[in-house]
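Q: Is it fine to ask for two folds in a single conversation?
A: Yes, each is treated on its own. Send the first.
Q: Here.
A: Result:
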Amino acid sequence: MTEITPQVNATCLDLLINEMVPLAIRTTRELKQSYEQAIESLVPQISIKDEDTGDVEILNSELLHSEDVTHKLENCGYSIGIRLSEVLIYKDSQNEILKNLELLNIMKFICRDVWRELYGKQMDNLRTNHRGTFVLIDNAFKTFQRFDSPVDLQDTIYKCKPYLWISSGIIRGVLKSFGVDSLITPEITKFPMVSFNIQTNV
């Protein structure tokens, strides 16, 4: 097997992921306000205010765990996942895992190749019941390395949870690129350990 040279700049990826949750909150808030204004004026105007940018206080927003924010983050990850799998497949078409497209091999591809490309390491554990349900475990999720709330650990976990939806979307996008529909539930099992419970249609 040929060694894959990482093509994702780790710093750029960290900065992108760190900004995705605040951006989703800001756009959700602006859309909500614009919708309310549109009911009155029927002309929505969306703009992000300067004071909303670059402020960690946005993670205290009531929208942090809203369905709209979750949906935006998961969809961004989904788009990344589809494109990333195409790039990895194109770059490493001789990959033994890809020669036998069983669901378990696709999960191994996610755990090994996709995770290494994104986070510089493989997933730490892959479990399955061999009936379409999988659990992927990362013992030290890289996205959480710099997260620490001055309040307490519970507050840190609360503010970190939305970031898992990006990775869930990436996994769902990779699976979809192989024609596998899935439902993914991310969990913070023991900070910074995370797990992704995957239910597939296979």
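Q: Second one now.
A: Result:
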Amino acid sequence: MAAARHPRRGKFHLTSNVPALLKPQICWDVGPQELYALSRTSKSLRTFLTSKSNAGPIWRRAFKIAVDEGCVPPTPPDMTCELQWANILFGDFCFICLHGPGENICWAFNARYCKECFPFQVQKRLPNALARYLPRTEWRGLVPFVQAAAGIPLYSSQEMRVFAKEYLSLHTEEECAEYVERQRQRTAVIQQYAETCKAWCAEKKQTDAVAQWRAADIRDTASYHENLVRTIARWPWYRTASLPTNI
């Protein structure tokens, strides 16, 4: 009688059998990028790491250590989900279609977009319902935005919808003025944070480039030394001469 065949298992199948009591201990001293990788290895670990009550302190501790060490940019001022922030930093998919390459990181929107979805997530002006209430000179800076290639601000369509809904629900001019002022202050904080992230990315890219150049220089130097030793080894007097060992 033929032996029963075992179902095919992935290389991370052992992670699905981790006892529930051991999961916090395993994840406590892990960095945010490793936590993100673990959340994509098995259903049980993803369920654990997406639970705010169970894994919230673990994510916050991991991000705090990573930010202090300069491994990741500062966390968003209004962050409500650490896993979403991890998706922005370490993921590679679009937040809208979920399968396109999320090459466009919008720090002011806390999102990744692919080239196809990005144009549908931004707009250049207020909705028509608000255009007659707020002059063009007053609504700039009310919602987060990103700069287009020509320097034109592109505003978040989602933020625009939320702003329009809340603004139109107000009844008095005083309430509208207070809401607009709060919105301006919030947007200023978000835009300042976005600039901080851009500066961090530029510095990180420069640091990585220097590290790659140094690694390449070390490899070239080692290769030069190896070739030099091989060349000397072919000389006639090599067997009788004593060569230094640290060439």
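Q: Anything structural to flag on that second result?
A: Two points. The first strand starts at residue 104 and ends at 106. The mean pLDDT is 78.
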